[in-house]
Hints:
By secondary structure, the chain is of the alpha/beta class. It has 12 helices and 20 strands.
Amino acid sequence: MALIVQKFGGTSVGTVERIAQVAEKVKTFREKGDDIVVVVSAMSGETNRLIELARQISDDQPVARELDVMVSTGEQVTIALLAMALIKRGVPAVSYTGSQVRILTDSAHNKARILSIDDVNIRADLKVGRVVVVAGFQGVDEQGNITTLGRGGSDTTGVALAAALKADECQIYTDVDGVYTTDPRVVPKAQRLEKITFEEMLEMASLGSKVLQIRSVEFAGKYNVPLRVLHSFQEGPGTLITLDEEESMEQPIISGIAFNRDEAKLTIRGVPDLPGVAFKILGPISAANIEVDMIVQNVAHDNTTDFTFTVHRNDYQSAQQVLEATARELGAREVVGDVNIAKVSIVGVGMRSHAGVASRMFEALAKENINIQMISTSEIKVSVVIEEKYLELAVRALHTAFELDAPARQGD
Ligand code: ADP
Ligand code: ASP
Ligand code: MG
């Protein structure tokens, strides 16, 4: 008998009919004799709706604690509905909010981290044959305040519960049948991956593939939780996220392509080229709590240099203000910015053993006349910043150049 944690995302519980379908599915698993803990998200669109209400009443700046009290209600509705649907089908079930389980988190509202999970109640329920339904995305801090784990956080609840319960597998059920070489909504020729390593999945998630929340992958890697992404309502093997990096002949160099439109670029021009300048520019940015992603400092000429970096688009305006002040202080020539950028990244552990991957990427972009504005690399990824309007073209071109396209089907 296995212990399985199953997480169902927003679209999978988006209507009462779907919740009933999920209940049928859980019932089938239960009848096979496995112990089941189910984690659910809010009905699709509900979290957005709640956030919008909060914005309307608080001039776009809701108090973080109160926002958590509110958005956590989305998941509270779905756990109760699913438990009702299971009980109606003769499956004993009980629902718990994060605080009832006692999913203890730190107090960073809206982006809390899980510190520990009390498994006593859950184990007792499983022992007497109940299916336990837990609200995703939420926890409670030491003082009893409701916290939430950041958008997409139900994935992390699922994996963290699986780790705490030492489950045999954590299954993430969603509206696609696995992890694809890139977002199948953007590239119809994308292919489902049989397997992907934690390391690659972590890069994909960090670089914009929102199929799994970044923290859930971190957790799964750290505690070695067997993790699988599957379609909620279609049969299939899904994608297994694994530790092993199989050395097979067919192992592709690139496993996937990730992209995001979340960043904006800022450049400070004509900065005196002196030691300590990077610190003088980025120190005040980090003091303002703004995270910097990519950084490029150009070679100096005329004893001055240009310094470019990217931040999250939400931080663009505050970063620009901070940088303007720095520019005045340093006597720099000007500050320019651009929000119409996108970041495209190729990811794959195969890069470690292959040369020329970056140049193949640049060649494919050059063929499409796409200008590269910034580049950054790590052992298993290459990222470029390009003009946003070329994003989809770039992703498709790279998908083809790295031979990731699905074989054409008849009639294609
Ligand atoms: P859920 O509500 O179930 O948590 P999400 O919307 O968070 O679902 O995640 C599933 C979505 O992730 C898919 O519908 C797909 O568009 C998107 N996605 C982005 N990149 C990928 C990828 N590489 N593979 C599969 N899906 C991806
Ligand atoms: N309901 C939350 C969100 O929309 C958490 C989740 O779905 O994972 O972000
Ligand atoms: Mg999600």
